[in-house]
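Appendix B.2, paired examples.
Example (i):
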Amino acid sequence: MTDITATPAPTDPDYACAERRVVRQLGFLRHLAIYLAVNAGLILLNLRDHQAHWWSLGPLLGWGIGVLFHALSVFARLPAGIRQAMIARELRRR
């Protein structure tokens, strides 16, 4: 009987795929943490100046779009059937 809780060998293709996904997820979390820290500092600087113009919204929104696309690239997944259909369509084009 095999133990289903055992970790697969590092040479297993499924293991390599899972490891790549985890590295991408950790990269996104690092990006998000830096985004939050830097923009919190910019907002505090903006509040300290008591200006009517909220200049800190520019970097917040601009960089936020980048964080959003990073999240989509890491966490959004196409169903497996769509991927296979797209590959088949590309092969038929030749």
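Example (ii):
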Amino acid sequence: MDRVVLKWPVPVDDHTHKIGGGSVIHVDCQDPHDPSHVMVWTVEQREGPVPQRTVQVFGTGQPLPFNAEHLGSAMALGGRLVWHVFQLLNPTHDDERE
């Protein structure tokens, strides 16, 4: 079965978001001058539904929930901001936002 790399924009907005559930191969700010989004690249199967995971972006020094697993970090604005993307394991309904 074929696989494909997909890119998922994750807003930096203190809310959870859905992205692909495949292997994370890269996390970065695609536009280093725009700190409002972090991009996550995953490897997904080409056929069938794409499994999803719930993620949220946290800044350095921000409190993290206990159910958060680190996926990757990215620098923006020349390193003045560092964003950390975490998967929320077993999120509650209140944690999830489409």
